[in-house]
């Protein structure tokens, strides 16, 4: 069957690897073209897929179909018809059935193999697949050899094993195995020649010496007497049962348990590392799973705690652990080699081919665990560590499973299982508070439960109150002993850090906000990005910091409290203060740059802002909105920090820099809080311009939130202050704000007076955008006075100016006004067009606040035109947006419109309006 050109064959291979599953378009593009796709790559891909469909769905295709589903493509075919999947099924069966049947299955699987896997196609993904498939083939070969060796069939293995060594010249496992088989076949001289050849090639090609396993095999061959072609049966070895007691109260971890369940069934390298912060439950998970699956390991279970992070500092070395393993495997103490490499080689020889579980707890790094790894794929290894052990993944293909804290539902179930349903039901609010303070950390939950059960007569609210204080929370999470003390557990991780990483942890603890970005961290640490990234990665590897999305980090709440303690205890005087000022300056510069993109024609307040530096500013409105969205909670926290530290200029500046974003995204409560803090700071500073700005923006923020108290007082005070300093532009802005507020209160003539005064000043100042804003404000006030023709002319003038200046926000506001005026002039089609354009522009500028107002008025026009379906959809959309913005009164107003539209009376009248 002609599959077509190489790229088309690669598309087929990319689908066959995941036969029966959706392969996304992006995955296909990457698999075929990697990082260099052609310009019209999707068109090219679709043409390949169309041709493949014609090929595979021909009569000879035997039930094979290629079809599109949401998100990608599926090649549907019986898995047994695809050699790769049949190979994998046979290998899986070869792991589980009896010895003879295992051999048959594995022999059949190996018979499917072709020398040129994925022949005729190339590319980054293809090469990666070749490496993976080659490893699977190698694993299957080793499994088959294990069975044959256990039956003394050494001669039969020689040809295939020689081929494997020839195709993997630097794989010391294979060379060691071939040496062993040659020796058992009485070919010691050939085994020694093989060792010498491999040793020479390793030295010449890689510049390294043979590893411990190969050296140990060399020693065995040198010391062995000629062996018969068939070895006598080996006496049965003891079955070690070294696992500690399983945890009694285990909760959750369904996803992680599922990964462990699959580990020894389909992974090519059954070595898995459970990593996570101290107290997250790594050991409990490993032991729980191990005890649940003892039947999978009939040859026994080995266990060792290396105590790398033991608060007492009693770390076990691999050589000591190996002695315990060897004794558990039946080796007499006197026969255990003194040399650690020889000891490791003997261990691997004893466990080769056995179905054994090895659990190694609390490992420091890769060097700490490598001597304890079996050389046989039949052994499953579970490792726990607070460090990432990335080197182990690189050198030994180990998989990593990262444990996070328990989600809220699992944390609640865990606490309930410990303290009982009745106590949880009796004080639900206290239970919620306790769970929040533990933040899902299993060790903290266990300590908490212990304290509750120790004093069953104490109310839970008493303990919740003790934990409420951050300064003493770590003290409350202690029940005696270093392994049940959160502070001691974190201290052992902290002491393992180098000084630079330890200092970084302290500064990150002091940083305001729940998360931090890479660039923000670099500013905090006063380091270039690569240096900052390296330090953060060190904390990540120690699981004291979590990179939850690329380039963004967060700390567990209890780790943060501990980090603050270390900063207060270990940091030189003044260093934290300087770092926090750097951080606030970074936030201010970024916020000012983003604000100027959102509102390029905004009044430049005469406030002393820090000079902008290389903060990689956003380049357009979309990037500015994304930056604000990402950093918003941190910016609010930064102002809380400036308030707490008495940094009044920065407090006022942050309020100004966040004002536009808060308005457009309808963060009304936050906006009022920002300006309330800014107002207090301005009053303390006493500088007239700062006071005027704070009076103006606080009053206007309150007005936009629907408040009436002191709004006019703040605005008129601002007007007076701006007059005193001679800032005519700001005076005009306040007049315009007063016009809007008075219009909302129904005082239309006074509103028009203020709007016209603003317009007159803007004309003198020769600022076309401000002038256009004033024209639109005047038009709105005229429309409220039913002077529609005059209002429309003002809007046309404003629209022309806004478009000349490319001010999208002003253009949207004017189109909204024109829609309102056209509606009231019964020019409904025109009104609909204006409103739709306004909504589109407000989407483009991120103005969620006024977008929904335009939608409501658009629904009014649809209703007036008796287009009831459009009116209903538009008002339902608007009501949902109002609710999401917490504008509940506005949502109720729109819901009333919907109720009236859907009332039976309106249904019978066909939606006719009265009057």
Overall geometry comes to elongated
The proportion of residues forming helix, as a percent range, comes to 55-70%
- CATH class assignment of the domain at 254-402: Alpha Beta
The quaternary state of the protein chains shown equals: single chain
Structure commentary:
The protein is mainly alpha-helical. Among the domains are: 6-77, Winged helix-like DNA-binding domain superfamily/Winged helix DNA-binding domain (Arc Repressor Mutant, subunit A), CATH 1.10.10; 254-402, P-loop containing nucleotide triphosphate hydrolases (Rossmann fold), CATH 3.40.50.300; 408-486, no CATH class; 497-571, Arc Repressor Mutant, subunit A, CATH 1.10.10.10; 585-710, no CATH class. Helix content is 65%, strand content 5%. α1 (6-16) packs across α2, α31 (668-685) runs antiparallel to α32 and α34 packs parallel to α36. The longest helix is centred in the N-terminal third of the chain and has 27 residues, at 124-150.
Layout: helices, strands, pairs:
Elements: H1 6-16, E1 23-24, H2 25-33, H3 41-56, E2 65-69, E3 72-76, H4 83-96, H5 99-111, H6 124-150, H7 154-167, H8 172-184, H9 188-206, H10 212-223, H11 254-266, E4 271-275, H12 282-292, E5 301-305, H13 318-328, H14 340-351, E6 357-363, H15 366-369, E7 380-385, H16 390-396, E8 399-402, H17 408-419, H18 421-426, H19 428-438, H20 442-454, H21 460-468, H22 473-476, H23 486-495, H24 499-510, E9 515-517, H25 518-525, H26 529-541, E10 546-549, E11 552-554, H27 557-570, H28 575-598, H29 621-645, H30 648-664, H31 668-685, H32 688-704, H33 711-725, H34 728-744, H35 748-765, H36 768-784, H37 788-805, H38 808-824, H39 828-845, H40 848-864, H41 868-884, H42 888-902, H43 904-909
Parallel strand pairs: 4-7, 4-8, 5-6, 6-7
Antiparallel strand pairs: 1-3, 2-3, 9-11, 10-11
